[in-house]
Specification:
Mean pLDDT: 88
Strand order of the largest sheet: 2-1-3-4-5
Oligomer: single chain
Distance between the termini: 29 Å
Largest sheet: 5 strands, parallel
Order of helices and strands: EHEHEHEHEHHEEEEHEHHEE
Length: 224
Amino acid sequence: METKQTILVVDDEEDMRFLVCMYLENSGFTCLQAQDGREALALIQKQTIDLILLDIMMPNMDGFSLCEHIRGYSNVPIIFLTAKGDEWDKVRGFKLGGDDYIVKPFSPGELIARIEAIMRRTYQAKKQDDLSFGGLLIDEKGRKVTVKGENVILTLKEFDLLLFLAKHRGQVFSREDLLIRIWGYDYAGNARTVDTHIKTLRLKLKESGAFIKTVWGIGYKFEV
């Protein structure tokens, strides 16, 4: 049986969340709800989300701020679903990384059609870009990592380092080589930066952290 895709609805209006979730569930999606940005972040960190429907005007953390924060570590599809229909708001939403922008009131049919279109674009090629090692799954395009289905929140450099090692599994790289490849030639730090990131990666990946091997006197490699 095909696993249902999970959509997170982030809106401070309970009636709106209920209505949207009803449309989504009737169309075969699993729906999660959050009443503001902070609650949404907590859910995103706990489990895999396939798409986010995001209101803008919310307490604690508005939709623009939440989108910008998420784009720091993930390319999960985001559709703004909001009453703010000004052109400037739309432009800002797209510049912050939104994939689509729907103004309330909306047609249920149009909402589902746009969601399905973005899902097709995003996930058709996804399987070809996923790297899977036991319980560890690295989604290159989405820049997401899961261990046994649980999201692992990584910084940009942590993700880049893990992805590079995983794509070159079995090859040994010195600290200096990794520093150049991941941080660049003009990086002012030293090779111990690599050690720090490797240590943090292993902790965050839990048992999958054992795939990152230390090659004494040389550097590191990824080996399953």
